[in-house]
Amino acid sequence: MRTIIEPFRIKSVETIRMTTREQRRELLTAAHYNLFGLQSKDVLIDLLTDSGTGAMSSEQWAAMMRGDESYAGSPSFARFTAAVQDLMPFEHIIPTHQGRAAEAILFSILGGAGRNIPNNTHFDTTRGNIESSGARAFDLVIEEGKDPASLHPFKGNMDLTRLEAFMVEHGDTVPCVMITLTNNAGGGQPVSLENIRAVALIARAHGKPFIIDGCRFAENAWFIKQREPGQGDRSIKDIVRDCFSCADGMTMSAKKDGFANIGGWLALNDGELAALARAKLIQTEGFPTYGGLAGRDLEAIAQGLVEIVDEDYLRYRIRTNEYIVERLDALGIPVVKPAGGHAVFIDARRWLSHIDPLQYPGQALACALYEVGGIRSCEIGTVMFGRQPDGSEVPAMMDLVRLAMPRRTYTQSHADYIVEVFEELVAQKDALRGYRISWEPKMMRHFSCHFEPLD
Ligand code: F0G
């Protein structure tokens, strides 16, 4: 069958408030053309992030009623731990309120001045936590992972030659080796099981712990099943267990492939490291049987982990992204190919080549998507990465716009609507103009800076 059907029925709905193009133009002006400044009620399709924004299942809501809010020894924690360990066989599971809290705890122990930490591509909070500890973060993704048009099946893979050279060069200053599944900052591209195993071997050979950022582990496993020779007949759960069996620990945002609105964890095999992490957890998040979470959140995650490895769900999830990428490609719009797991990325610099990178083609496209269709997306380019520590501004490596897909939230007709908005834009794109930044804060400017459209 060609039609992509959602493998669920809808039991509870949330009304989308319809707006006109004229209203959206005014709202955009009032928000200083920064989409983070919009109220969500003014957005028709919110693709700002896939994080924490998905719909929970009836089983998750039912499980939440069982949430036990005891300060210590909650049975919800036992169910949460069992669900995590069923997929990721680590010794110590330390709950946190979200992924970045797990990173902050990990790098309060492993980070520090003079340390160097490699990854395929560090997500911005991971990089932020490493750098604020005084350590340095390095991205060693394969070359194909930086080329939006390359059709390599595992564009999130680590460049093993560069990793080996990095380990030799930096020696004892490397406290751990990381890999991010899928490679969010590189377009949601997957990492092969073979590559994960090879990275683990290099880390082990140099006596360093191997830590996986597992945010989108189920999507990554689906790609392994589809694309990696010899993996097609295996269950997603088996593949997931294999991926994590070769690591010494993980950080996780349960707001992604935990199917939950909030939550995360840090997992470790090393008892001494785990003891240090728990001490920090008590200081910053909460007692080790709840982290920064309510018991009901732990229940939602435990049930979410059972549901996320369902193949019907993963097939539909990935297929929807592929469908949008195929349709945009057919319209001649440059998109990152192959489709990533959680998002569709548009190469705005190439599509709007009449706009200088320092006039933010990604921002111009993101604003146009909102004005024309009420779609909220996110610029991942010069606005986000252009400002340098010395105050200068340079074009980022790419100017992308990310359409991140919330889980189980929108339907196939929403996907068709997104494509239709792009069809509309094809005719208007040459008239789109760049922006200038009229005000920006000292750090992380993309969240709050003000823009003005250029004539
Ligand atoms: N690692 C990766 C790969 C992520 O994508 C994120 C969050 C985090 C860590 C941090 O997790 O949000 O729970 O603290 N990514 C979201 C996004 C925010 O929109 O891509 P968190």
Description:
- Helix content is 40%, strand content 13%.
- The protein is α/β, with parallel strands linked by helices.
- A 5-stranded mixed β-sheet has the order 2-8-7-6-5, sandwiched between helices. Strands 9-12-11 form a 3-stranded antiparallel β-sheet. It has a two-stranded parallel sheet with strand order 1-10.
- It is globular, with a radius of gyration of 22 Å.
- The model has no long low-confidence stretch (mean pLDDT 96).
- The chain has 2 domains: 21-50 and 310-453, Aspartate Aminotransferase, domain 1; 58-307, Aspartate Aminotransferase, domain 2 (3-Layer(aba) Sandwich).
- Bound molecules: ligand F0G.
Tell the overall outline. Answer: globular
Under the CATH scheme, the architecture of the largest domain is: 3-Layer(aba) Sandwich
Largest sheet: 5 strands, mixed
| Widest sheet, order of strands | 2-8-7-6-5
Question: Which structural traits does this protein have?
Answer:
five-stranded mixed beta sheet; 16 helices; Aspartate Aminotransferase, domain 1; 13% strand; three-stranded antiparallel beta sheet; 455 residues; Aspartate Aminotransferase, domain 2; alpha/beta; binds ligand F0G; 40% helix; 14 strands
Short description, anyone?
The chain is an alpha/beta fold. Helices cover 40% and strands 13% of the residues.
